[in-house]
Amino acid sequence: RRMFPTFQVKIFGMDPMADYMLLMDFVPVDDKRYRQVPHCPRHGARLVGYAFHSSSWLVAGKADPATPGRVHYHPDSPAKGAQWMKQIVSFDKLKLTNNLLDDNGHIILNSMHRYQPRFHVVYVDPRKDSEKYAEENFKTFVFEETRFTAVTAYQNHRITQLKIASNPFAKGFRDCDPEDW
Amino acid sequence: RRMFPTFQVKIFGMDPMADYMLLMDFVPVDDKRYRQVPHCPRHGARLVGYAFHSSSWLVAGKADPATPGRVHYHPDSPAKGAQWMKQIVSFDKLKLTNNLLDDNGHIILNSMHRYQPRFHVVYVDPRKDSEKYAEENFKTFVFEETRFTAVTAYQNHRITQLKIASNPFAKGFRDCDPEDW
DNA sequence: CCCTTTTCACCTAGGTGGTAAGAT
DNA sequence: ATCTTACCACCTAGGTGAAAAGGG
């Protein structure tokens, strides 16, 4: 599925005439596996069907084996600096999956693990021996506030409500105008 | 609205590593305005509502003033020759309008006039004085079988049926499987 | 019990010709 | 009478969380 909200950046300082590739990848934040806070029927209220729990996570142990470290190129790549800078760049085609055998080129993540999205800008070096300069021709940006825990089902009702309120495709689940929210 | 069927080309012979722009424009086939064959209620059957007529056109006089000669760049432009050649190039984002004040960048045509679509390949010359070589850096292709008469409403029931049978978005108007057609 | 998978109703977004009304 | 415009039901295509079913 698509990552929501979408990762978006506003870019400054490129050479307007040069070509750049823009891409994203995801790295584990730590070496842990998480689990939800236990549902304790003896002390809690009786819950039917799927039960939402607290907003915190417990460490469940060591991380599962790392997934293939795939990369997502922004589909407009390559493009001139002027093109990238003239409006906000949106990674809305990026999709996440937990399927290790995925052959759609989606980003593969382990559920119940924490990830840090990273954004990379690669300068397309016109020189013939450009491979030699690979190390100096890219720059990586990390925004820590974009960290998240990958899940197959939401663990926190407030996250669900936030998604329903802000994602236009979830309008069918709203019970009031998101402007009033 | 979109042009249907879509103009599609398979390209050979480009320099795989060079950049090209692909674009289309539309030129008048002649200097005439057309009109449908008259509906003659005295000799024909009585027709209720909209009446379809013969499959031929009558010349109604001299062409209306030419519309702004807009151009449609394939949205993947510019791209490498290798990219353009590896699959059929489809101009499915191209849209036609009769609105002279259109500000969506659509191709403006006069209704009831005949047009010839043209396909242009422009080599992006990396030399600094590339403007000097503009004349030798493009090639135009004309397929006469793609000529058509622009209309605001279909004049020929067989054209309508062909569109309904072949355009997936018109599936709601089909009364049998297009495979059986 | 905890998590994952599958299916679904319900949306967004936009491409069809039909149809009735409008314009000349 | 002929052509154009505006709106519509009905599609394609695909993004939502809910809910039920499945797995360990």
UniProtKB/TrEMBL annotation, chains A, B:
The cross-references to InterPro entries, in alphabetical order and at most eight, read: p53-like_TF_DNA-bd_sf, T-box_DNA-bd, T-box_sf, TF_T-box, TF_T-box_CS
Does the UniProt entry include the keyword Nucleus? yes
Highest taxon, organism lineage = Eukaryota
- Residue intervals annotated as DNA-binding region are 1-175
Pfam families on file: T-box
Say where the protein is mainly found: nucleus
Please name the CDD domains in this protein's record: T-box_TBX1_10-like
A biological process (GO) annotation for this entry?
A: anatomical structure morphogenesis
Record domain T-box: where: 1-175
Q: What is this protein called?
A: T-box transcription factor TBX1
